[in-house]
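## retry 2 of 3
previous attempt timed out at serialization; input unchanged, resubmitting
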Amino acid sequence: MELQHMKLQILELGLIIIAAYIGGLAARRLKIGEVIGQILGGILVGPHFLILIQRLLFKYSNFENYSIFKPVYHFFRHGFEEYSIIFEDYHFFVFLFLGIIAFSLGEELHLKRIKQVGIKATYICILQAMLTWVLLSSGFYYIFKFTLINSLLIGSIGIATAPALTFILMNKLRIEGKLKSILANIVVLDDIIEVLFFSVFLSIAISAKKGGKLSAIHIAEHVFFEFFFAILIGVLIYFALKLALKTGIPPEEKHDTDETFIFTMLSKHPTPSVEILLIIVGTIAIGLAIALHFGLPFLVTAVVAGFLISNFHSHIIFDSLKIGSVMPIFNLMFFGIIGASIRLETFSMESLVFVIGYIVLRSTGKIVGNYVGCKITNQDPKVTACLPKLMLPQAGMAAVETILVASVLGGTGGERIFNTIIPALVIFELGGAYLSEKTLIKWKTWITGEREVLRASGDIQIAGHDFVDLISNRAILMHATTKEQAVFELSRLIVKERNIHDISIFTRPILEREQLGSTGLGNGIAYPHCRSEFVDKVMVVCGIVENPIDWKAIDKLPVDLLFLIVSPKEQPEKHLQALRTISTIISKPNFTNDLIGSIKTNKFDAFCNKITLS
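## retry succeeded, writing output
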């Protein structure tokens, strides 16, 4: 019996992986979003879809007489119940992965990043959270006639947003910068508000079920202790990682023998690696298990640990969570299991009206709240267009809390809440995955739209003085051997000219932009760039590297000619105008060779005079 159980475990794991992988490939071909395909693949091998197949087969039991169908009927009669039970064993992975994603949010909660995002993200979050809660609570109380406490519970669950799906997509598409920082701050605060509301209303609901009255002081104490101990476990995770992951000289280069053997053996320098990933996953897993054992908000625990690591230890640690050869496996497993967890049997005509109501009210609260919040806080138009659509996915915490409500309240409204929210989560997860992927691809297209400009630049007439006005005297011969060094050398000229003391004001957003997609657009030329409030006009630095640098260019060729473009923050079109000017002028015969030669021979001024007069 034990061997049979183990065989089914192995079979089910293999089915989830293969189904999610094939589903992702098919979806990519159909251009409907790889994540959607992985979720659908998981659905097809999950017990909640197979139970529908079982009902259909048993309805037509005469097919059992055919030899081809006998193994199928045998499985559904003798193995399916155990298959369904075994699947529950894989749910731990969803909780663990959610914890890892929550920990990774700490990268976006660095105090410097929070300062850059400012208090505006808090305003957006509070506005959309309150609007969503009010719409859902009042809608289910006044329209659908749920009890007041159950309506308030539904409203609090509706606040929750599932960060995992969106941030996995961001990592996959290599999207960094302002949108990710704002979204991280909103999502973290969003879930904190949701946990507070849910804890309060669930305590009241439990007390009402028992026929007692719960005082405000008792509720406040309960919530305070939950958060206090969740934060305490997060602090302990931080100290454990800090001991295991050093920030100074790598262990192999140290000769200090005062440390204990165990400490020396476990201590790892936080250079991105699979070893560091394993230490992070193992430590977080232990912390989450403790938090779950005591019924604490485990996502708060993970976020606190990430926040402390980001601000008081090493930011490099988070790079181990982005290892390209490992993380796709985690992503595939996560979306496959999410798909297999979707309870298709919970859909019914009786609860369909409530499901539609939940979807409409929550979507309205999230979209309108975020849109109005962005408008009030004067966000970038591109952020305003994208952010509301990224707040719709909902699973994870909401699913856990819905199951908890169903088990605790039972026939006093718990089952009704379960049958309303769980089907809605299916739609939010599938629809949210599709909408998020399309939105993020559109964001990336908006941010990386240089190729279209280059294609159109050939028919435009540009005078030599337009190029000289952009470059001025900012042209240098560089000794850089890496992309980072090149960006630093180029940025140094603008920093010196503008009398700015912190060069990271330019280097950080430029390198973040490079993570979106290489600015090496072919023919040995790259156009690194950023927008900044520290310039009031477009400033371009031209650089020649002695030895060509690998820039991950679209034609795979190394780069030796660089144009760093910094444009005013409030005039995004200026960057494309500058790019059009440069790309048009350098396309002239012999222009590039003459430019490179003038910089190498220190005759750039003479070259500028020549092209200005021509």
